[in-house]
Amino acid sequence: MTESTLTLPSGSWPALEPGWVWLCGAGPGDPGLMTLHAIHALKEADVVVYDALVSKDILAWAGPETELVYAGKRGGKPSAKQADISLQLVELAKAGKRVLRLKGGDPFVFGRGGEEAQTLIQHGVPVRIIPGISAGIGGLAYAGIPVTHRDVNQAVTFVTGHDKTGGPTQVDWAAMSRACGVLVIYMGMKHAATIRKGLLSAGRPEDEPVAVVSQATTPEQKVLETTLGDMVRDIEAADMAPPAIICVGRAVLMRQVLDWQALMRGEAPRDLDPLKRGKPAQEG
After folding, report:
1. Nearest-angstrom CA–CA distance, 135 and 133
2. What is the pTM of this model?
3. For labelling alongside 35, which of 14, 230, 232, 254 has CA 20 to 30 A away?
4. Does 63 reside within a domain?
5. Which residues are catalytic, by number?
6. pLDDT exceeding 90 applies to what percent of the chain?
């Protein structure tokens, strides 16, 4: 591991005190999307308890004596139990450690950060919350998809594809489909067929644009443009894998003009006014 030489600007930074836990979002993947408070905490912490989506490049900002503790949770793989993670944070803080709990994205957006913070406060451990850029916003932005566009939607709905039951069983697809034109679905890859069925049953059209963004904001980022009707088949054909965000709605069409990474490579926009057209390309 190579130690980062990043130097924070001078100023009055809050101190990570012994016995405290800072609950920080690490952003969607690109180390440049970390907040300065989170980087500051990495340099001050005695212990960093980090999730599966926190990269080695981010952890390289930790101090040379900092203990790194992996506490990742990945679907279908052996993972630490949430209750054990929360109690471990309590124990570390009670031992007088300066603790950084580092979670991918934003800790309060489908990240169970609220549960961890609640446990800490119930045990008398002081907490500071540092928000992070959520993958459902930042990851889609890196793919050239705005979650809101004045010509498309006046609201956006964020949905989890993995609730307490292990699937999206508590989602009222009909109500959600009536209320919002753009849906952003976290952790939905495993249950893509269930999501597709629910949305089609709720009246969403088969030709509605869908984008799947895997490994968002990282060098391994992969984007699939498809339709609701073809979503499951195309995900399998393109070998898309989690972690991934699924976006449903006409905002996906904007990628045809706003794929800024393609523009940086010298490629021309596919359509300067895609909302006047209809269907996205099958893969991008």
Report:
1. 7
2. 0.90
3. 254
4. yes
5. 51, 73, 187
6. 82
- pLDDT surpasses 90 at 169: no
Q: CA–CA separation, 108 vs 119, rounded Å?
A: 14
Same structural domain for residues 117 and 199? no
Q: Please tell me the predicted confidence (pLDDT) of residue 1.
A: 40
Whether residues 160 and 242 fall in one domain: yes
Q: 220 and 196 in one domain? A: yes
Q: What is the pLDDT of residues 211-269, one digit of tens each?
A: 999 999 999 999 999 999 999 999 999 999 999 999 999 999 999 999 999 999 999 99
Q: Is residue 147 part of a domain?
A: yes
The domain that contains 99 carries what CATH number?
Answer: 3.40.1010.10
Band of residue 9 on the pLDDT scale cut at 50, 70, 90:
confident
